[in-house]
Design a protein that fits this description.
17 helices, about 450 residues, 8-stranded parallel barrel, TIM Barrel, alpha/beta, about 50% helix, single chain, binds ligand G3I
Length: about 450
């Protein structure tokens, strides 16, 4: 018999796990299984059930209605611009935190994860006097290192543990190239700026996942191969890169990859031993301009992207670079503005979900385990524990019978009845003897917790 403390520990672990996975429907037994494609769930509910993040960007110009969509349908927030060095400090050391603070507070208030975008982006949106300040120094390398340290310290000091992931370095490679892009950091510090940035971030934010964030114009591409080489070499050199952000901008005018290619490329990055997130997903409708049903084709492609990510266990999250088609950077960024309206997002200009919404939700669901399948898994596990002699006594048969019945009820979405059966299952497991009593009781309890059986 497991000691009481061990059993208590197992129960706490089960409760924590199940609480994280529990659908957003709280305060009552679940009314639907969001792990089932087609269930009337939000993307956020399904993402939580699948144990992944699905996010979007926040910006100060968003309406209350857009922010309501962000809070209801997404589990993660990235500041589109507000946390970039040149936006939060237009001049070196001259910080204005209001926009970033508001976004961080929004994420916290709504229980959403916050991605910190981005600490070091040497190409755009830097303080207007950064380059001149460094150039004027007697030792530009030392000055740049000092300024990086001050900026990272300011950002991590202010937003700290609220930021789960930092895009430590954004877009270090050339636009369509395979070498490091020329930028203010490379000029002052050489390639070592990457290692310095990640070392600084690790020292300041030991609890955060540190990401290198990059985009490609096509999949596969020499740039993707160069990205893998860069990350592999940096990590081999001890640079603490935890994750790679593949932005996922599917621009107009560039070819769309198929699902197998995206899965293959994501897997190749994962094989480096890093987490992956698709960090800036948008899909220009220009690609479907000649299609009889462009919205359906766009939905299918969104589904392919998400399915490719869900097929790679290290792919932990996806963020769309916008909420609704009326506010997309693509419509204002040459040359992509030539394809405006790009309509690249999940919600239309009336803030209504497009077909891509359900396609994304149902692709995410493939990562989740339906309650029915979880119950059958418990049924099989209890049976094996009994066969192995680790769970003994007449009540084991009772436990298996009621869990099997619960699985059948879960198939019929009779959630309350399943809760009752599973309660009997827990009692029966606890009446058994043998070293696996706690394991059996915890497994059934975890299912009850996921179903919110004991909610008021
Ligand atoms: O802040 C000024 C404002 O004072 C001025 O009145 C206005 C007039 O044009 O410009 C404002 O700056 C704009 C800035 O966004 C803040 O809104 C810039 O012009 C505009 O170019 C800038 O665009 C952003 C772009 O990054 C900059 O490169 C986009 O909103 C943003 O979506 C985009 O996001 C990047 C990611 O951070 C990194 N990956 C690529 C992605 C797309 O470029």
């Amino acid at each position: 018999m497991a000691s009481i403390s061990a059993r208590g520990g197992l129960l706490v672990a089960a409760a924590t796990a199940a609480a994280l996975l529990a659908p957003a429907v709280s305060g009552a037994i679940v009314a639907r299984d969001c792990a089932r494609p087609g269930a009337a769930c939000t993307i956020a509910e399904t993402a939580r059930r699948a144990g992944v993040h699905f996010g979007a960007i926040a910006s100060s110009g968003q309406s209350d209605a857009e922010r309501a969509l962000l809070a209801e349908h997404f589990t993660s927030v990235t500041a589109e611009n507000a946390m970039k060095w040149g936006e939060i400090a237009p001049r070196v050391g001259n910080y204005g935190f209001a926009d970033a603070d508001e976004i961080a507070a929004f994420a916290e208030t709504n229980g959403m994860r916050l991605r910190g975008h981005t600490l070091a982006w040497g190409v755009m949106q830097m303080p207007s006097d950064l380059a001149s300040t460094v150039a004027a120094a007697a030792d530009p390398a030392a000055r740049m290192s000092e300024l990086l340290g001050e900026h990272f310290g300011t950002m991590v000091g202010r937003y700290g543990a609220r930021v789960a992931q930092w895009d430590v370095v954004n877009e270090p490679l050339e636009v369509a190239g395979t070498v490091l892009a020329k930028n203010v950091f490379l000029d002052a510090l050489g390639p070592g700026y990457l290692g310095l940035s990640f070392a600084l971030a690790r020292a300041l934010a030991p609890g955060a996942s540190l990401y290198l964030n990059e985009y490609v114009l096509s999949w596969p591409s020499p740039k993707l191969a160069a990205l893998r080489t860069l990350v592999g070499d940096l990590r081999a050199g001890g640079v603490p890169i935890d994750g790679v952000g593949i932005q996922g901008h599917f621009y107009p005018f560039f070819p769309l990859p198929d699902r197998a290619t995206m899965e293959q490329e994501l897997r190749a990055i994962a094989d480096l031993g890093v987490e992956i997130e698709i960090t800036e997903l948008d899909v220009s409708s220009w690609h479907f301009r000649d299609d009889p049903d462009p919205l359906a084709r766009q939905a299918a492609f969104f589904g392919d992207v998400v399915t490719a990510c869900m097929a790679v266990p290290s792919c932990r999250g996806i963020t769309t670079w916008g909420i609704q088609d009326g506010d997309s950077w693509l419509d204002h960024a040459p040359p992509f503005d030539l394809a405006a309206p790009n309509d690249p997002l999940l919600f239309d200009r009336d803030l209504e979900p497009k077909p891509a919404y359900a396609a994304v939700r149902d692709a995410i669901a493939t990562r989740a385990v339906p309650f029915e399948d979880e119950a059958w898994g418990v049924f099989r596990r209890v049976g094996k524990l009994r066969r192995d002699g680790l769970l003994r006594g007449p009540s084991v048969r009772t436990a298996r019978r009621v869990v099997r019945r619960a699985a059948q009820m879960l198939r019929a979405e009779r959630f309350a009845d399943a809760c009752d059966r599973l309660a009997r299952g827990v009692r029966a497991a606890n009446e058994a003897t043998g070293p696996a009593v706690a394991e059996a009781a915890v497994a059934i309890t975890a299912l009850r917790l996921g179903l919110l059986c004991d909610e008021a």
